[in-house]
Specification:
This protein is α+β, with helices and mostly antiparallel strands. Among the domains are: about 75-110; about 150-280, no CATH class. Helices cover about 60% and strands about 15% of the residues. It contains nine helices and six strands. Strands 1-2-4-3 form a four-stranded mixed β-sheet. Strands 5-6 form a two-stranded antiparallel sheet. The radius of gyration is 31 Å and the shape is elongated. The protein starts with a strand and ends with a helix.
């Protein structure tokens, strides 16, 4: 969902610049950081942006400047005072106040403080402004597609690493079984008295069955397969991938709790590390 789009257009002697920035978000939250959009058009713009970009915390910036020689630049008093009051409020809360006259010049450089106003009758620029917004949206979507290809490759590689780490676990299962058997035998030998060998064997089998991780390995493999299939088939798989990643985490955690072997635990930790990176990246998928 992260992305950046920018568009510029000229209408007569008017220059329009629109920038849109988007970061992760569970829903569509559109913020209009500009006074260039007429109030009666704000709802339409929000709907336009939200329907095209679907999800994310989205900020839209727009500036309108008259490039002709018969234009003047004026200070928007309300915007200037808003910035100034906020800065002074923060300054008053600091342990040591900042007394720098240059702050006024800094405020003048902030968005929407300086306005270009044509001395002649103003022109209705809503239609070219709307077209510029649409172009910026298209630019952001292209940005998302480019980043999405890289993200797809990275996530697939991490799923493959989880499967590779899972295959490493199998090499230690016979060692684990023998280790458990030896520990139980050793403990029994410390106890004096006759030992029922058949009963002992039954207890060892029961204990090993409780520690068996076959089902967890099978389910984790299936979840990994389903994860990649969802990437292939779903147009907007983000939320579903999050659910699948949760199921993968449950199986990996169960593997860890049943491991009872240092080397298996080491591979489980590696799988957890890859899964956390997958979860983090999945948040950026629509």
């Amino acid at each position: 969902m992260t992305g950046y789009g920018k568009a510029e257009c000229l209408y007569n002697d008017i220059k329009i610049v629109v920038e849109i920035r988007s970061v992760n978000g569970k829903s569509s939250d559109v913020g209009l950081k500009t006074q260039a959009i007429p109030r009666e058009k704000e709802y339409e713009v929000r709907q336009l942006v939200s329907s095209a970009l679907m999800r994310g915390s989205i900020d839209l910036f727009a500036t309108v400047e008259h490039a002709g020689s018969n234009s003047t630049r004026t200070i928007n008093r309300d915007v200037f005072l808003s910035y100034y009051n906020q800065i002074m409020e923060i300054n008053n809360s600091l342990p040591q106040k900042i007394n720098d006259p240059a702050i006024l010049g800094t405020i003048l450089k902030m968005p929407d403080v300086l306005e270009s106003q044509k001395q002649t009758e103003e022109t209705d620029i809503w239609e070219p402004l709307k077209k510029c917004i649409q172009d910026a949206i298209a630019s952001l979507i292209e940005f998302r597609k480019t980043e999405g290809k890289k993200l797809d490759e990275e996530i697939r590689s991490r799923v493959a690493l989880i499967l590779e780490n899972l295959s490493q676990v199998e090499g230690y299962e016979s060692q684990r079984t023998e280790s458990v058997r030896q520990r139980i035998n050793s403990r029994m030998e410390e106890l004096k008295g006759e030992i029922d060998k058949n009963r002992l064997e039954q207890e060892i089998i029961y204990y090993l069955e409780k520690l068996d991780i076959t089902e967890e390995k099978v389910r984790l493999s299936q979840h990994c397969k389903y994860f990649t299939e969802t990437l292939d088939k779903e147009e907007f798989p983000g939320k579903k991938l999050g659910f699948i990643a949760q199921e993968m985490g449950r199986e990996i955690n169960t593997l860890g709790s049943k491991a009872n072997h240092a080397e298996i635990q080491r591979w489980v930790v590696k799988m957890k590390d890859e899964l956390e990176k997958i979860k983090e990246q999945s948040l950026n998928i629509l």
